[in-house]
Write a structure and sequence with these properties.
single chain; about 475 residues; alpha/beta; Rossmann fold; two-stranded parallel ribbon; UDP-glucuronosyltransferase 2A1; glycosyltransferase; transferase; UDP_glucos_trans
Length: about 475
């Protein structure tokens, strides 16, 4: 993406190169700010378009001037919409020419296929990155600097933006809003939603035509501009699942059912002592058993102790230390069990060879049971995290980057609601850092294990290395993360 959005992509490129990845940038000949540089790990694939730099400069200038001269307010909304519609239409014409420069260039597409890319990283403000990925048969992910009123972030990334608290991007408001500011903020969100829904609808026919050679569920692709993952397309894949026992299995189970409904092949990795993750006679899911030395009674006892701990030592300002000590003992037990599960697969050459032979496309993991990412790395496939919830939304905040201001959002398992008194807000403020500390202490134990498996010294930052995060707390949306896979 041109302009300031290139700054975001450039940071990702620098980080990928630093981690020894080879990067190729698809660059159209009329680019204004994206200048090719000399780097052995960075290649610029330049393709021709029928316009020069001045065309892009004109589009950016028109956009900025339209925003400044018709700044949206309750009294100028309609005029702003009319003027901005003209600018966006011009922008779309430029985008189509950029898309055609790749999609109608068979020689270039063949060259890209020959290069065997593993993933495509795209800024969704410029359409067509997803089409190119589908044409090449590779996964794609979105990375975005921002969109007006966070439209793409809300509807694609499922990031919550309550209009009473979070100011819309480009609205010039802050998080200290008067009643009138909140009204204006509310209007900003809905205006941008309407603009994107109506002005981007023109891409429906383009996508339908471009994807006519790919198997689809429907004759025409309905490109919902907010759902860039193109859920209407059916591409049968081979999916490996790394689940967590207990209530977390319910989240995974709903994903399995949806995957099977879409004709994907699904294999679940489950320990021999699992309580709830079991096959049924009529199931189309494959189950691969991981041998472990502990029994089902150990898992049953662990879950029971966890529940009793929460009931007997419910965390409050007065019981925090007792709760933390008891929880520490439980986490130590869970750590030993989890290590056995990891060893049961990573130290099992026969099982690993069988999984390697199965040629999975992706691994879906619940990060509460650690090692899913290690299995994916060993198999050389991308991985996705999906999570029912974590205490105080620790994983969701640090991995999914979901904002959770402590003054407004009650910590998961704190038994608070979004209607909090001052005392409850204090309790909520304590809950978040406490859970952060507990989880960081627990994850720290995995440093040596990960270093041993991957053959180099590192601190466990696996949560930030997922291809995507699927958070069930926020309507199961895809949230793009900057890095492709753990290396």
């Amino acid at each position: 993406m041109e302009g300031s959005h290139w700054l975001n992509v450039k940071i990702i490129i620098d980080e990928l190169i630093k981690k020894d990845h080879n990067v190729t940038v698809l660059l159209y000949s009329g680019a204004l700010f994206i200048a090719p540089t000399v780097n052995p790990s960075l290649t610029f694939e330049i393709y021709n378009v029928p316009f020069g730099k001045e065309r892009i400069e004109g589009v950016i200038k028109d956009f900025v001037l339209t925003w400044l001269e018709n700044r949206p307010s309750p009294s100028t909304i309609w005029r702003f919409y009319q003027e901005m519609a003209k600018v966006i239409e011009d922008f779309h014409m430029v985008c189509r020419e950029i898309c055609d420069g790749v999609l109608k260039n068979q020689k270039l597409l063949e060259k890209l296929k020959k290069d065997e890319f593993e993933v495509l990283v795209s800024d969704p403000v410029f359409p067509c990155g997803d089409i190119i990925a589908l044409k090449l048969g590779i996964p794609f992910m979105y990375s975005l600097r921002f969109s007006p009123a966070s439209t793409v972030e809300k509807h694609c990334g499922k990031v919550p933006f309550p209009p009473s608290y979070v100011p819309a991007i480009l609205s010039e408001l802050t998080d200290q809003m008067s009643f009138a500011d909140r009204v204006r903020n509310f209007i900003s969100y809905h205006l941008q939603d309407h603009m994107f829904e109506t002005l981007w609808k023109s891409w429906d026919s383009y996508y339908s035509q471009a994807l006519v050679d790919i198997t689809m569920r429907k004759k025409f692709v309905q490109l919902l501009v907010f759902n860039w993952t193109l859920t209407e397309i059916v591409l049968s894949g081979n999916v490996l699942i790394w689940p967590t026992d207990g209530s977390h299995w319910l989240n995974i189970k709903s994903i399995l059912e949806e995957l099977i409904q879409r004709n994907h092949n699904v294999t679940v990795l489950a320990s021999s002592a699992t309580l709830f993750i079991n096959s049924t006679p009529d199931s189309t899911v494959n189950f691969e058993e991981i041998p472990v030395s502990y029994k089902k009674s150990h898992i049953d006892s662990l879950i029971e102790h966890m529940i009793m701990l929460w009931i007997d030592h419910r965390p409050t300002p007065l019981t925090l230390w007792t709760f933390y000590k008891e929880l520490g003992k439980l986490l130590e037990t869970f750590f030993r069990i989890n290590v056995q599960i990891c060893d049961g697969i990573l130290n099992n050459p026969k099982l690993m060879a069988k999984l390697q032979k199965a040629s999975f496309d992706v691994l879906v993991a619940d990060p509460v049971t650690i090692c899913g990412d290690l299995v994916a790395v060993k198999l050389g496939i991308p991985f996705v995290y999906t999570l029912r919830f974590s205490p105080a939304s620790t994983v969701e905040r640090h991995c999914g980057q979901i904002p959770a201001p402590v003054a407004y959002v009650p910590a998961a398992l704190s038994e608070l609601t979004d209607q909090m008194t001052f005392g409850e807000r204090v309790k909520n403020t304590i809950s978040y850092p406490l859970q952060d500390y507990i989880f960081q202490s627990y994850w720290g134990e995995w440093d040596s294990y990960y270093s041993k498996v991957l053959g180099k010294s590192l601190k466990v930052s696996f949560i930030n290395d997922a291809t995507f995060v699927l958070s069930n707390s926020y309507h199961e949306g895809f949230c793009p993360i900057a890095q492709t896979k753990l290396k």
